[in-house]
Design brief:
By secondary structure, this protein is of the alpha+beta class. It has 3 helices and 7 strands, in the order H-E-E-E-E-E-E-E-H-H. The protein is elongated. The termini are far apart. 22% of the residues are buried.
Length: 171
């Protein structure tokens, strides 16, 4: 026993019994924020970004740069994207419009991408040299003009409509 008449075992038992209640209360209060003691407060986002660039990171992961309508240019890590049976297999195509879920933590440059599904694939742009060059030119300029964490509705709409026109074969 220590100074206040409570021993360590009793205190541990009380804390253990309250852990579930604290977790439920936290989830109720925080809503779309997800966190635990090891990874506090990640904010979840769901949107339809356009993928701008995909680069390898280590043996298993990829860094994905994408443009969102509401938040501008973002970079995230698709963990395990290079593995044989990855959930990202075939989904991370430059200039593709996707339905994505990602998590952000304040003060971090990279987001954690948890899911990606193709909404508008860009296969036709990659079929010939003209499409590849045009797509590359477009991506280079968007990467230069788009700002991180800055809403870019007009730039997003311009990119989206340009990609659609190029896929349809408009010169």
């Amino acid at each position: 026993e220590r100074g206040h008449g409570i021993d360590d075992e009793a205190a541990s038992a009380v804390l253990a019994s309250q852990a579930g209640s604290v977790t439920n209360l936290g989830q109720t209060l925080l809503g779309r924020f997800v966190g635990n003691a090891y990874e506090p407060l990640l904010e979840q986002y769901i949107g339809q970004p356009v993928i701008l660039d995909v680069a390898d990171l280590h043996d298993r992961d990829r860094i994905v740069t994408f443009l969102t309508r509401e938040q501008g240019k973002k970079k995230g890590v698709a963990q395990g994207a290079k593995t044989k049976h990855s959930r990202f297999q075939g989904q991370l195509q430059p200039l593709a419009k996707v339905e994505a879920t990602w998590f952000e933590k304040e003060g971090r440059d990279l987001r954690r991408i948890s899911s990606v599904g193709l909404v508008g694939p860009a296969h036709r742009l990659q079929e010939d040299l003209d499409g590849i060059l045009t797509g590359s030119y477009l991506v280079d300029h968007i990467l230069e003009f788009a700002q991180e964490n800055e809403a870019s509705d007009l730039l997003y709409r311009l990119l989206d409509s340009t990609i659609e026109a190029l896929i349809e074969g408009v010169d």
